[in-house]
């Protein structure tokens, strides 16, 4: 339980910092459900976390009927991540000195690492990440690769509200997120963090 809670908090905090410290600073988009939350935030100034919660509801209904273990494992993830995203947004510092490219890479990497370490404990932040987990149980592809596809679709959906430069930077951020997620979910982790009998290579597709 302690390992689960620490993984949940650290993963959600990394995701929250990546969004609020790096993405919103330069009007960048992320993929998946977070991307939709950012689009709503840029258009109507709605809280990103709240949007994620609302949009995740249909996916959770589907998970309840067909993938109930994922429903239970990701429920805490979507709630904690949404709350942390909106809470961290209140204390985001001005990191504009890093520049847009560095922010896109670093922010995307933080999201990928945060999501990846949670996937290693079967925790999802909900939305399209949860959908990717469910799909990964049916087809022989790494969950990180599936997320990249969903993420790119979300970036395309936001083309009308960002500049060409922001689209390029958002694409770089999404790729950074996907690469970090694939690395974290595919590479062996220390035994004291993730017991070997819990992860028999199921992410190594």
From TrEMBL:
<feature type="transmembrane region" description="Helical">
    <location>
        <begin position="70"/>
        <end position="91"/>
    </location>
</feature>
<protein>
    <submittedName>
        <fullName>YitT family protein</fullName>
    </submittedName>
</protein>
<feature type="transmembrane region" description="Helical">
    <location>
        <begin position="41"/>
        <end position="63"/>
    </location>
</feature>
<dbReference type="Pfam" id="PF02588">
    <property type="entry name" value="YitT_membrane"/>
</dbReference>
<feature type="transmembrane region" description="Helical">
    <location>
        <begin position="167"/>
        <end position="194"/>
    </location>
</feature>
<keyword id="KW-0812">Transmembrane</keyword>
<dbReference type="InterPro" id="IPR051461">
    <property type="entry name" value="UPF0750_membrane"/>
</dbReference>
<feature type="transmembrane region" description="Helical">
    <location>
        <begin position="97"/>
        <end position="119"/>
    </location>
</feature>
<keyword id="KW-0472">Membrane</keyword>
<keyword id="KW-1003">Cell membrane</keyword>
<feature type="transmembrane region" description="Helical">
    <location>
        <begin position="139"/>
        <end position="161"/>
    </location>
</feature>
<keyword id="KW-1133">Transmembrane helix</keyword>
<dbReference type="InterPro" id="IPR003740">
    <property type="entry name" value="YitT"/>
</dbReference>
<feature type="transmembrane region" description="Helical">
    <location>
        <begin position="7"/>
        <end position="29"/>
    </location>
</feature>
């Amino acid at each position: 339980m302690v390992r689960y809670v620490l993984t949940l908090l650290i993963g959600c905090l990394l995701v929250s910092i990546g969004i609020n410290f790096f993405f919103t600073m330069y009007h960048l988009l992320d993929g998946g459900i977070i991307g939709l939350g950012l689009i709503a935030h840029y258009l109507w100034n709605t809280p990103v976390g709240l949007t994620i919660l609302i949009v995740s509801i249909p996916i959770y209904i589907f998970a309840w009927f067909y993938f109930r273990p994922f429903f239970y494992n990701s429920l805490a993830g979507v709630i904690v991540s949404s709350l942390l995203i909106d809470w961290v947004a209140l204390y985001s510092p001005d990191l504009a000195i890093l520049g847009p490219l560095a922010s896109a890479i670093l922010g995307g990497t933080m999201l990928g690492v945060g999501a990846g370490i949670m996937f290693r404990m079967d925790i999802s932040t909900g939305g399209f990440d949860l959908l990717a987990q469910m799909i990964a149980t049916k087809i022989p592809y790494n969950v990180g690769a599936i997320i990249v596809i969903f993420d790119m679709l979300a970036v395309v959906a936001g083309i009308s509200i960002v500049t060409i430069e922001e689209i390029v930077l958002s694409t770089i951020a999404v790729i950074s997120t996907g690469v970090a997620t694939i690395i974290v979910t595919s590479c062996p982790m220390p035994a004291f963090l993730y017991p070997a009998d819990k992860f028999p290579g199921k992410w190594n597709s």
